[in-house]
UniProtKB/TrEMBL annotation:
An individual GO BP term: proteolysis involved in protein catabolic process
Residues of the active site: D199, E266 (proton acceptor)
Family: Belongs to the peptidase M20A family.
Record protein name field: Carboxypeptidase S
Gene source species: Obba rivulosa
Gene Ontology MF, one: metallocarboxypeptidase activity
Keyword terms, alphabetized: Carboxypeptidase, Hydrolase, Membrane, Metal-binding, Protease, Transmembrane, Transmembrane helix, Zinc
GO cellular component: fungal-type vacuole lumen
Record has Transport as a keyword: no
TM helices/strands, residue ranges: 32-54
Domain called Peptidase M20 dimerisation: residue spans: 316-462
């Protein structure tokens, strides 16, 4: 996955869970709780023996071994709910099995067969062998020969899925981006869109020897399928195609049309792929013309104890802004310098920005609060104090403030979920040691909080830098507006969008139990609970905020129901994506195919 102007490694933060587990503390607490439980039993025995009847006074006595004595005294703390139960704080839908249950189980049986599996591994391996690398400096399609490899990739797709190509209508958008339309039997239903991207992050040539198996081998070693794109995002792309091809071979026709759209530059600017696809899709299906969109994104894991799986589809994405700060000042010989050079003034500005980070907020209406409620309600090993605060915070502002402080203290990465981040990533200035710098600049990368906006960020930067511009006697031009600051004797400062307008935080997908989100959640649960070897007490599906952006950032007009989810998680990826030794657990890839199959059946059945 990538960002609007790229450089993206957010996958590594966006979909990992904050490490708030404190195992040794949990063990101590469990021991303390056992002692408390023994005392309670003893008390029960004493009361029983003394003939007093009070059974109605302790309605929650049995709820949890996590209750400390203090909490029991408060009579508030409920402990973790078993995942099979339900809570209004994080409503859960039931497992959703496809209505075509015979077809679904036939396909599960097929997907378990070794012939099917080895063919599926070959299909993914072949796709990995075509290095569809994405570069930041690619000229538009037609002007840069490096795009031609996408033609080879598309030929491979056409040859590999003959049944699908005979049935679905294929449109090539901007030559290499692909849209497939699978006509449904009921024209009154809005289509569902499944997305993936053809491109991959380039392999750094100096790291090729560090790969256990060559990055474009697509080698299956009996457990893993190796190579760039095996996880991001060719297992999704090929997984979707395998699921559709398999459904067609079984004679299935969806009631609701199914659309597939594959971009070609998600890992860089996105302008050549999704940028063109968005226009085509809106022209073809209309504004709000799709029922829902599923793209890559959040996965699953067991962050709060092995018993409960949490799947976290991203239902919103942070915004984005790269702000440029340019300082110009008079040059001259450095033997007679002013007290502050342009570099010194820019440094003051950078220091001031870092001294004034954007304020974090935990809002009850926001996705981070909702996700916290899900973890606190169902996570067996969620930190007790935070769990209690999370419950109190539903109604108490004091507890809400304490919960925010607690979350930030528990994991530094939570500040990225709760606020706009800023990072000064680029700086340039000075050409000669005996010449005063005349023009220096820095670029600050921002990921904008769900509750904020591009304009808020610009106002914040201006608010912090205006006093400094005044102090140094600089004139100030802030995002196209002349602001009264200094006389200009000291020079000039310009604030601007570094590469183009920023991206607002995405609209938040509704996650009520009557919304399409429920179909996704029920499908995730159906996939897990029918996976061979499934041994959890339950699956919780929690909405999540994505810290990075996918191609969906261009698709907001198409539907309000956008989900970013890969049926992938702990143990499914060897190492990490965007680096050496990207490999997909073959079994996990089969589970992706199962998930896509059930998702198509569930969205088009109902
Ligand atoms: Zn990706």
């Amino acid at each position: 996955m990538g960002t609007p102007s790229d450089k993206l490694d957010v996958d590594s933060v966006a979909f990992r869970f904050p490490d708030t587990r404190k195992n040794s503390v949990a063990r101590q607490r469990r021991r303390a709780c056992l002692r408390a439980a023994a005392l309670v039993l003893l008390a029960l025995l004493v009361y029983y023996i003394s003939g007093l009847s009070w059974s109605g006074d302790l309605p929650e006595l049995q709820v949890s071994s996590y209750r400390s004595k203090t909490v029991i005294d408060r009579q508030l703390f409920k402990g973790p709910l078993p995942p099979a139960e339900n809570s209004t704080a994080c409503p859960q839908v039931d497992v959703l099995f496809p209505g075509h249950n015979e077809l679904d189980s036939d396909l599960d049986e097929l997907y378990a067969s070794s012939a099917f599996r080895s063919n599926a591994y070959d299909l993914l391996g072949g796709a990995i062998q075509i290095p569809t690398e994405s570069y930041d400096d690619l000229a538009p399609v037609g002007q840069d020969p490096r795009w031609e490899i996408f033609g080879t990739f598309n030929d491979y797709i056409e040859q590999s899925f003959p049944v699908l190509h005979a049935k679905l209508k294929l449109t090539k958008v901007n030559t290499y981006a692909l849209v497939y339309h699978w006509q449904g039997s009921n024209g009154s239903l809005l289509p569902v869109l499944l997305m993936a991207h053809e491109d991959v992050v380039p392999v750094e040539p100096t790291t090729i020897d560090d790969w256990i198996h060559p990055p474009y081998s697509g080698f299956y070693d009996g457990t893993w399928i190796w190579g760039r794109g095996s996880c991001d995002d060719k297992s999704s792309l090929i997984g979707i195609l395998v699921a559709v091809e398999s459904l067609i071979k079984k004679g299935f026709t969806p009631s609701r049309s199914v659309v597939l759209a594959f971009g070609i530059d998600e890992e860089s600017a996105g302008t050549q792929g999704a940028g063109h696809l968005a226009g085509y899709l809106e022209e073809t299906y209309g504004k709000d013309g799709l029922a829902m969109i599923l793209d890559e994104g959040g996965g699953y894991g067991t962050p709060y104890g092995d018993d409960v799986l949490f799947a976290t589809p991203a239902t919103s994405e942070k915004g984005y802004l790269d702000a440029r700060i340019e300082v110009s000042a008079s040059g001259g010989h450095s033997s007679v310098p002013p007290p502050h050079t342009a570099i010194g003034m820019l440094s003051s500005m950078i220091s001031a920005l870092e001294a004034h980070p954007h304020e974090t907020q935990l809002l009850r209406s926001g996705t981070p609060f909702l996700a916290t409620q899900c973890f606190a309600t169902y996570g067996p090993e969620y930190p007790e104090k935070l769990r209690w605060l999370a419950e109190e915070a539903r109604t108490s502002d004091v507890a809400l403030a304490k919960l925010k402080t607690g979350l930030l203290a528990a994991d530094r990465r939570n500040s990225a979920l709760l606020g706009t981040t800023q990072a000064v990533d680029l700086i340039q200035g000075g050409v000669k040691v005996n010449a005063l710098p005349e023009h220096v600049e820095a670029i600050v990368n921002h990921r904008i909080a769900e509750h904020s906006s591009v304009d808020d960020v610009k106002q914040h930067i201006l608010g912090v830098l205006l006093p400094i511009a005044t102090k140094f006697n600089l004139t100030l031009d802030a995002f196209g507006k002349n602001i009264s600051a200094g006389t200009g004797n000291g020079g000039h400062v310009v604030l601007s969008d570094a590469w183009g307008p920023g991206l607002e935080p995405s609209p938040v997908t509704p996650t009520g139990i009557a919304d399409p989100f429920a179909i996704l959640a029920g499908t995730i649960k159906a996939t897990f609970t029918t996976t061979e070897g499934y041994d959890k007490k339950g699956v919780i599906v929690s909405p999540m905020l994505s810290l990075g952006n996918t191609d969906t950032a261009r698709y907001w007009n198409l539907t309000k129901h956008i989900f970013r989810y890969d049926h992938s998680g702990e143990g499914a990826v060897y190492g990490d994506i965007h680096t050496i030794n990207e490999a997909r657990l073959a079994e996990a890839y089969i589970q992706q195919i199962r998930f896509y199959t059930k998702f198509i059946l569930n969205t088009t059945d109902k």
